[in-house]
């Protein structure tokens, strides 16, 4: 399965010591923007030796989140570095990140680190889609997609299909637990949640079931899952090389990357083309069209099929590892905090009667459930870092930074800043309640990004996680198989568990 194809990196610790809070920061590194305006980018601390940075990146590839915290203690809240052939400015303080993001223009641009993604699409003639499109083309595509999946009033239309998938997942959990988990555990929990997430988002985007939760996963679906794993596994090396190196030397890693993308895009082709045939057949019979996402995109917008192939593929990829890993961490922390789990169970059962399925409307009355997810995304941000390229010159932290400079916004660093969060290492969902005493800066934890470039599937992802968590808590009491066992996060582009998570799933009375 997808997780099994990734090489297991060295385990790293969750966070550094609180001595981080005591590290001194030079005046030029604070959020004040009116001082030292004569300083240029070359005066910023850090290193720009590309060879040294390549070695540093390779050496720390599985612990990048922790290594960035070490660099913050060395250089301060903002420093220069490079990745491959790209120069970066790293931002590790919430005030600096807020100022940076609030200066985005009409067409914000992501950091350019994945040369392979663009090069593959050039090679095959595919659209750049939501991730790599820029300017008016990006805005046009983003607006069309947002109308159907970003507006809160639109998301509930997918609740029933999401719940159908959760029902199948619960049944599969019980089958696996009773048949191969000695009546207690769900073997390979991370992989099972991965399959739930893929089935769920595919149901929304393709309006069809892939069969990820069947007793035997269909061969084509398994190939799709394996190809996603291969694509992510090869992406790191690809992104560190120049495009001409890939096309001229054609290294094996690039060939595997292309083969993986061919399979991934093939699934989008097949499902979208099938939907076109279905729509034409319905129209020829005089039938009404359904309200699915694909039907809307094909008949209610002027988005081309070429753009749709790329966009749906991106939404699918962005919505699988992100939600599945978040749910792994959620169950892990609930098992470690049984009192919190009991409180959450009482909340869910207080809203939903026994035997009933929690709905989108029910979730609105579950504040603790939402806070649990919010806190998980703080402690284990899906993306330890995110990037931006601004379209104008700015002054940040006392430095003149020219247009086109790439910024890395270090979410992992910011969520562990004691200035932003009291006792930041502690998993505490109650910090997010309005009854709490903490005043949290919105930008201190932005797991879905901020502004026009924030995650397009945010509303879908949140609803998926709310519904599945409510059902899991309603159905099972989750315990650690080995009490006190600690699982550390590692960086594999996303922040994921470095070891298998072993949990018991005991039926609630």
The CATH homologous superfamily of the largest domain is termed Cytochrome P450
Number of strands: 11
- Secondary-structure element series: EHHEEHHHHHHHHHHHHHHHEEEEHHEEEE
User: Helix share of residues?
Assistant: 40-55%
Shape: globular
Q: Report strand order across the widest sheet.
A: 2-3-7-4
Subcellular location: Mitochondrion inner membrane
Family: Belongs to the cytochrome P450 family.
Cofactor: heme
GO molecular function, one term: cholesterol monooxygenase (side-chain-cleaving) activity
Question: Could you describe the 3D structure shown?
Answer:
It is a single chain. The chain has 509 residues and is an alpha+beta fold. The chain folds into two domains: 3-113 and 384-425, 2-Layer Sandwich (Uridine Diphospho-n-acetylenolpyruvylglucosamine Reductase, domain 2); 141-379 and 450-507, Cytochrome p450. Helix content is 50%, strand content 9%. It contains 19 helices and eleven strands. The chain has helices spanning 50-59, 64-75, 94-102, 115-124, 129-132, 135-149, 159-180, 189-206, 219-239, 243-249, 252-284, 293-299, 305-318, 321-336, 338-351, 360-363, 367-379, 411-415, 458-475; strands spanning 39-40, 78-83, 86-91, 386-389, 394-396, 399-401, 406-409, 476-480, 489-492, 494-497, 503-507. Strands 2-3-7-4 form a four-stranded mixed beta sheet. It has a three-stranded mixed beta sheet with strand order 1-6-5. α7 crosses α19 (458-475) and α9 packs across α11. The longest helix has 33 residues, at 252-284. It is globular. 41% of the residues are buried.
